[in-house]
Design goal:
Blueprint (H helix, E strand, L loop, with lengths): L1 H50 L4 H31 L8 E4 H12 L7 E8 L6 E4 L1 H17 L3 E9 L12 E9 L6 H6 L9 H7 L5 H11 L3 E6 L5 E9 L18 E5 L3 H12 L4 E5 L2 H10 L4 E4 L2 E2 L2 E2 H11 L4 E6 L4 H10 L2 E4 L4 H14 L11 E4 L3 H12 L5 E4 L2 H9 L5 E5 L7 H12 L8 E5 L7 H7 L3 E4 L4 H10 L5 H4 L21 H8 L1 E2 L1 H27 L2 H17 L3 H15 L5 H24 L6 E2 L2
Parallel strand pairs: 2-4, 8-9, 8-10, 10-13, 13-14, 15-16, 15-17, 17-18, 18-19
Antiparallel strand pairs: 1-3, 4-5, 5-7, 6-7, 11-12, 20-21
Length: 659
């Protein structure tokens, strides 16, 4: 009986303790929410005062108040995190985490705090550490930031090093996985063993004098410990008074194969993105990540270049860092909103600043903390692009296309038929120049290589006439030359944008939306075709049906009609090629290779297009090309045989439509 009463009493005390913990958690969450709500008004008013451009004394007070408000919200976030953990309500996300970008981005953000003091921030990442792991990037960032912030508080001179290795000492390496050890090593004042033993408890610092001298709530290390334990890892510290400290944590994880994860990435086909990022590694990561999802990305490192590019041409989305060498990303965003009010905007920064986040949210700008996963960055760009609308151009909403290749003209006409836009075609630059003088066109899309006057000559003539005026007529180069797609190249020649052949229907639509010639509303609900990765080399089919779907929306009777026309127009070009071969006219052979490359790739004839590209390059370099010409003739015969088969058997059995 006594034993039974004891058990009931224990159960009651456990229930009371649980209820008390829940009440404490709810109370902290409620207090955090109630304080945060009026803080939004404070932030808003401070921002409005700053926008009024007050005198220097008032501006300095506003800046101090904004910093204090941000500090208060950071403390509230710590309290709320602690409350969630105390109530076992903290959940971790599982995304891709680029380890090197995470660490280097953090040190870049912390570099502001060591300005003016003799402390160097160093990263030391072993070569065998995977480039991308699976984990929660936000919480990993929070742990490392807490440990680095703690190290910097107690280091007046020397170094703070973030080391990452696979040399774990306290946890077991998971099967088919990897374990990582993160160390934050400082040359600061160090601590005794007694202090180390109690350091990870909530609201505890080294001692009361430390709290008075260095400030803080003492929650950072406690939260870090709980987060590491949620990750099934361990955390600790090794230190000696006067000799610095090493805070470490070890976590089990898994290396991510970027190719295998590509199937989950959002489709950004045809979306035009401007990235303004001065850190070379960060810029490379952004460009590579977004291009892997199909976006067209331009990258520049400065405020000035970013603004000039945005004034020159519209982009669907701009991804902008806050700390630029010649200005603040927030100011650049405000200028872009005036220049291109319909551009989707993302602030992508290592600064985890609550005040900045609030300011950007009020402007309708996405705030994204580095390093985001590829999926996170891609989804942010996709969402921002869906908010962008017609950019608008000065002049009529009629398109002029200068293209001398009849096969490519035919493809473009079929694509345009699906969009119901006003367009005219001309065969060379002289005709294009005369048409522009009528004032009937707002945009020109021109090939580079044309008779009479080529694309280079056309844009030079227009730009020369604009010298000394405020006029600027938009001209887009339409070419199969990959080198021309580099921003420095097409801008140097005077073009506003480069459009690479072959072009998909979705890319064409997106281009026309950007320049205000096609309504965003007409594209709503459309999805890019679900296509397999385009095969190349010997694996590519004679006619790549998926490429045809991307361009025409379906592989159907219209596609077959276009293929028949391609064969008809190409045979005379092949005959001319054979004549130039006999005359050993390498210049003309290179020109024929260029023309055939564009039309063949646009018709989905991958092998033939590659052979034509080889002819263009080989003849231009003065190399022997007889074997390439032989291959071109052979490939065209293969295309003819396949087209004949489709004509005989019909295309119904092969009819594939884009979803």
């Amino acid at each position: 009986m006594d034993q039974s009463n004891t058990i009931r009493e224990l159960e009651q005390k456990v229930a009371e303790a649980d209820a008390l913990a829940q009440m404490k958690s709810n109370f902290l969450a409620m207090i955090s929410h109630e304080i945060r709500t009026p803080m939004q008004s404070i932030f808003g008013l401070l921002e409005l005062i700053a926008d009024e451009k007050p005198d220097e004394k008032i501006a300095e007070m506003v800046k101090t108040a904004q910093g204090s408000a941000s500090g208060l919200l950071e403390i509230l976030d710590d309290v709320l995190d602690f409350a969630k953990m105390d109530a076992d309500k903290m959940e971790l996300d599982q995304f891709e985490v680029p380890v090197r970008l995470l660490v280097r981005g953090l040190l870049e953000a912390l570099a502001v705090k060591v300005h003016g003091i003799d402390v160097e921030l160093i990263d030391d990442i072993d070569k065998d550490v995977p480039f991308v792991i699976e984990g929660d990037p936000k919480r990993l960032r929070q742990i490392i930031m807490n440990l680095c912030g703690n190290a910097m508080k107690f280091t007046n001179k020397g170094t703070v090093t973030v080391k990452v290795s696979t040399n774990v000492k306290h946890i077991t390496v998971p099967e088919n996985g990897v374990a990582l050890r993160f160390e934050v090593i400082d040359t600061g004042i160090g601590m005794s063993k007694e202090v180390c033993d109690r350091l990870f408890k909530a609201f505890v610092q080294a001692d009361s004098s430390t709290q008075r001298k260095y400030g803080g709530t003492g929650l950072g290390l406690s939260i870090s410990k709980k987060l590491v334990e949620l990750m099934k890892g361990q955390i600790g510290v090794d230190s000696e008074e006067g000799k610095g400290s090493c805070f470490w944590f070890e976590i089990p994880t898994r290396a991510v194969d970027e190719k295998s994860s590509a199937q989950n990435l959002p489709k950004l086909d045809g979306i035009s993105v401007l990235s303004v990022e001065d850190h070379p590694q960060g810029a490379k990561e952004i460009v590579n990540s977004l291009r892997s999802m199909g976006a067209n990305v331009e990258s520049c490192p400065t405020y000035k270049e970013g603004l000039n590019l945005m004034r020159r041409r519209p982009f669907d989305v701009a991804v902008i860092d806050q700390g630029l060498p010649d200005g603040l990303g927030l100011d650049l965003i405000k200028e872009i909103m005036n220049e291109r009010p319909n551009t989707g905007l993302i602030m992508y920064t290592v600064r985890d600043d609550v005040g900045l986040s609030h300011s950007l949210t009020a402007l309708g700008v996405t705030y994204l903390t580095k390093p985001a996963s590829r999926i996170g960055l891609g989804e942010a760009v996709f969402d921002a692009s869906s908010k962008s609308a017609i950019a608008g151009i000065d002049g009529p909403s009629r398109l002029l296309i200068a293209e001398d290749n009849p096969s490519i003209q035919d493809i473009l006409k079929r694509q345009i038929k699906k969009m119901d836009i006003d367009v005219d075609f001309v065969d060379d630059g002289e005709q294009a120049y005369a048409a522009i003088q009528t004032g009937n066109y707002g945009l020109v899309l021109t090939d580079l290589h044309m008779p009479e006057l080529d694309g280079y000559g056309l844009v030079k003539r227009i730009r020369d006439e604009e010298q000394g005026t405020d006029k600027h007529f938009p001209i887009i180069v339409f070419t199969a030359d990959v080198q021309m797609a580099q921003r420095e190249t097409y801008l140097k020649h005077g073009f506003d944008e480069c459009f690479l052949k072959p072009v998909s229907l979705g890319q064409f639509k997106r281009l026309l939306i950007r320049w205000g010639l096609y309504s965003e509303e007409e594209c709503k609900g459309e999805k890019p075709a679900e296509t397999k990765e385009q095969a190349t080399g010997d694996d590519a089919p004679v006619i790549d049906r998926q490429a045809m779907i991307r361009q025409l929306g379906a592989f159907d009777e219209t596609a077959l009609e276009m293929l028949n026309m391609f064969v008809e127009f190409t045979q005379p070009e092949i005959d001319t090629m054979l004549e130039m071969q006999k005359a050993n006219n390498l210049h003309q052979l290179s020109e024929i290779g260029h023309s055939l490359k564009g039309s063949a790739l646009s018709a989905g004839c991958t092998h033939l297009g590659q052979a034509a590209s080889d002819l263009q390059d080989g003849a231009a370099d003065g190399k022997p090309v007889d074997h390439i010409i032989e291959k071109i003739v052979s490939e065209l015969e293969r295309v003819k045989i396949e087209v004949d088969r489709l004509n005989r058997e019909g295309i119904k059995s092969a009819n594939i439509k884009a979803d």
